[in-house]
Amino acid sequence: MYISGVGRTKFGNLSDNLQELAYEAILNALDDSNLDINEIGAIFVSNFLSGPLNGQLHLNSMISSLIPGINIPIIRVETACASSSVAFNQAIYCLQNYSNILIVGVEKMTGVGLLPTTDAISMAGDRTYDFPNGLIFPAAYALIAQQYMLKNNINHDILELVSYINHQNSRLNPLAHFYYKEVSKEMIKNAPMIASPLNLFDCSPISDGAVAVILSKNKTSDRDVKVMSSKIATDTISLTERINLTSFIATKIASKQAYKEAQITPADLDIIEIHDCFTISELIALEDLGICGASEVSELIKNGDILRDGPFPVNTDGGLKANGHPIGATGLAQIFEIVAQLRQETEKRQVDNPEIGLAQNIGGIGGTCGITILGV
Amino acid sequence: MYISGVGRTKFGNLSDNLQELAYEAILNALDDSNLDINEIGAIFVSNFLSGPLNGQLHLNSMISSLIPGINIPIIRVETACASSSVAFNQAIYCLQNYSNILIVGVEKMTGVGLLPTTDAISMAGDRTYDFPNGLIFPAAYALIAQQYMLKNNINHDILELVSYINHQNSRLNPLAHFYYKEVSKEMIKNAPMIASPLNLFDCSPISDGAVAVILSKNKTSDRDVKVMSSKIATDTISLTERINLTSFIATKIASKQAYKEAQITPADLDIIEIHDCFTISELIALEDLGICGASEVSELIKNGDILRDGPFPVNTDGGLKANGHPIGATGLAQIFEIVAQLRQETEKRQVDNPEIGLAQNIGGIGGTCGITILGV
């Protein structure tokens, strides 16, 4: 099973609507592949907030409208911020019936707002207990960060460094939300507080964007990238139901299963995409993915091990923090970056000769995790 | 591939919340099967409006919370009113990896309303062109009904008869939304107009409810029902994009493919569940499913052919009109009824010795269609 085409839009505060974003990504992915739309057997569309923000659901039918004459199966998947890695996972099972399946993730978050954006995003968390008590996402991840910092005896400096590295990476990615923005360590340190200890630069932005990926049963060209594994796992939705706040069991379970299926260990990874919705989640993921132990995470980051020329390059596209976080497209954006890196087509941000990459995409506070391992 | 367990809640204006409805259906399906929750390899959750109405998305993680200790793959599917037949279809592909998969459809529509219900439901249609021009669902189906009545030279009497038959059927289904309600032909004829020519009794109600179905790779008991085919197709979302308003191409394509896979013809069907969101859609479906030609639909209904003791019993549970229409659960409710009928467990509404049943579940104005064929 191969990825035979990838396409995306720029991420950011864009003037395009939901349809235009999805259409652009689909056309780009088809252009990137050797395939014609008529060779696509089914489509998955991944999106989180089009109901509450755009007032539009039934996106599978909306996609049918974008491509006149298409009556093939189109399925919408929603699993919060993990929507697109889960859609990708489902497409793999569905591929038994078709030669090629297209997966498109799309989110239009700015300039809309049937409901306030923060209110809408909080629907990824528990609205029965957590939300009424103030646990919108920055607050929930702040609680987690407080506990993590206490437990592992670290201070905010390390989170600032994570943010800085992601912003530096985005300066080499012309499609990134913050490609244009020069960000200094001083700016990060002095940014306004959002929910202590998380300041503005610990939080990923509100972005518009879309990404499409084409999955093919058989190899279509030398640029195709192999799907070594895709696994998903779930966990409880409310923080009140968690015993351990500083580790996400869904990441642990899905990554363990994925390593097994791909027959690799974390040491074999040449490039990693981590779901850094907040800087703290990058630290948690490094441990949950088995890259290093909890006590070693700080050192790993300080040593420069997650830089482009280090042993574990992380978020070379800028991550959610600086590439952007158009929620229903984020998991596919990670896959886009790994494909581009494995093909050695990322120009200035290219990692030296990568052979295996992993993407970790989580929903809510780790209530869903999708792990994808790709290789050449 | 078999259905080894089915369970549902009562449909109607209920006091239960989203979690309670889903939980009750899941427990009932497990009770109905010989399986324990630990034998379920993955779960699909189908829902349409939990974001706009309940303010809760990420329902796959919510389901994980309902069953402590469960970290298995859980996937939410949304394709408007066809959400649950599409989730069922996807579960079939996923079953290659597991022995048993549970599919739960749930919708909580009353007593909630972060947004007005009619506004929320309109998200199944096109919000760019149709909605701003007043085409909420009753209006869109009224346009279709006007054209259908003109084209086929029928009057409202035949729609009233469809409504009456569905209400009569629901009087034999204790779990139906309108089980309690004696409905006369006079009441239907004189009901208040909603959108001409559709009056109140042409429109399905706003219902709460949940249904769960367990799909098993191997036969688990003599009560298991065989899945003969499941197919889905899509079409454009906006009425402005349709050439023909009086036929839904997605139903035609999906049913043709399903008949082929099941190796049957429409004449082989012993029981049919039709998506009568509005009475007019039942007439359209009878033609689109190939039960009879457009010019014969009226006669078929007047002859009593769709009654329980006729050659093509339709909506023995009361259909969407009288069993109810908890949107994300509706497709599974149809499957529930067919399973119950094929097992001959429906008591007073039992059809004589049925062997093959078909369910037609559409989303929006036929923008999605899921067809399921089951047999003993």
Write the layout of secondary structure elements.
The structure is a homodimer of 376-residue chains.
Chain A: E1 2-8, H1 18-32, E2 42-46, H2 50-54, H3 59-66, E3 74-77, H4 83-94, E4 100-107, H5 117-121, H6 137-152, H7 156-170, H8 185-189, E5 193-195, E6 198-199, E7 209-216, E8 225-234, H9 249-262, E9 271-273, H10 279-288, H11 297-302, H12 319-322, H13 330-342, E10 356-363, E11 368-375
Parallel strand pairs in A: 2-3, 2-4, 9-10
Antiparallel strand pairs in A: 1-7, 1-8, 4-7, 5-6, 8-11, 10-11
Helix pairs in contact in A: 4-13, 7-10
Annotated CATH homologous superfamily of the largest domain in chain A: Thiolase/Chalcone synthase
* Residue fraction in strands of chain A: 15-25%
Number of domains of chain A: 2
Question: What's the CATH topology label of the largest domain in chain A?
Answer: Peroxisomal Thiolase, Chain A, domain 1
Order of helices and strands of chain A: EHEHHEHEHHHHEEEEHEHHHHEE
Q: Segments of chain A where pLDDT lies below 50 for 5+ residues?
A: none
Q: Residue-averaged pLDDT of chain A, rounded?
A: 97
Q: What is the helix content of chain A?
A: 25-40%
Helix/strand/pairing category of chain A: alpha/beta
Instruction: Estimate the global geometry of chain A from the Cα principal axes.
Output: globular
Largest sheet, spatial ordering of strands of chain A: 3-2-4-7-1-8-11-10-9
Tally of individual helices of chain A: 13
By CATH, the architecture of the largest domain in chain A is named 3-Layer(aba) Sandwich
In the CATH scheme, the class of the largest domain in chain A would be: Alpha Beta
Oligomeric state, counting identical vs distinct chains: homodimer
Largest interface: A-B, 64 and 64 residues
Please give the largest β-sheet of chain A: 9 strands, mixed
